[in-house]
Amino acid sequence: MATVPLLAFFLVGFGLPAVAIVTGAFTVSSDAETGAGSFTTANLTDSVQGAYWTALLSSVKLSALTALVGTVLGVPIAQAVLTSRFRLLREAVLTASGVLANFGGLPLAFAFVATLGNAGEVTKVFHLTDHGWSLYSFTGLAVTYLYFLVPLMVLTITPALEGLRVQWREAARNNRATALQYWRHVALPILFPSLLGGFVLLFGSAFAAYATAAAMVGATVPLISRQIADALSGNVLVGQGNLALALSLDMIVVAALVMAVYLPLQRRSARWLS
Predict the structure, then answer these.
(1) What is the pLDDT of residue 236?
(2) Closest CA to 145 of 218, 70, 81
(3) How far apart, in Å, are the Cα atoms of 191 and each of 35, 67, 141, 158?
(4) d(Cα 220, Cα 222) in Å, to the nearest integer?
(5) Are 109 and 144 in contact (CB under 8 A)?
(6) Cβ–Cβ < 8 Å for 30, 12
(7) pTM, two decimal places
């Protein structure tokens, strides 16, 4: 009985919108001259063609790249913090990571525009524009996303790193294994599911991000989230609400595939590190 409120909230907050998205994705727009409310697959067909397909591929590319870089940067930072002798440093980094991992949207866009934009302070000091730097590009957006993805990876991988037993390192050392050999043959194979799980989590966070990209690059970088907003607001074509639902369904499918990879990896990692 104690779980009933949670299940009811989940049903209302996630179940009903999911049903509405699936239903609307296979329905003709209500403002169509003929066939209003009838079943169709045209919305899904259109959502994987032309500019919409380009935006979906661009979102996947941006999410995969930033998740990979965030994983590569986050793991050594987390390991350095855990092995540090200064407890205050560890608490400060983990606290800051918890804040920065949830820092996004318009404030993040404004911070980067003021810092690395065309008239940003860092851009002017180092003359980055003369070297081809542009914040309002795919590369600039990727750098912005790393601002919250790297701290998120630090928070995600820290429990797994703490689960590495001291006995494993001592056993490797007793068998004359170097630090590199220990990480290559012992630590990384055990951490591999957690690393992939963290990568998947970062991918999902970047894939679902909207406000930062919308405020900073607009339509310069094609993203599926921007296409959904344009379809809903009628900026390009009027009466494309159901097409927006089809684009949302595409995102749900990608997210479901991501979670299908993440959950088994999480369970496997938990068995090793428990």
Answers:
(1) 56
(2) 70
(3) 54, 17, 29, 11
(4) 6
(5) yes
(6) no
(7) 0.85
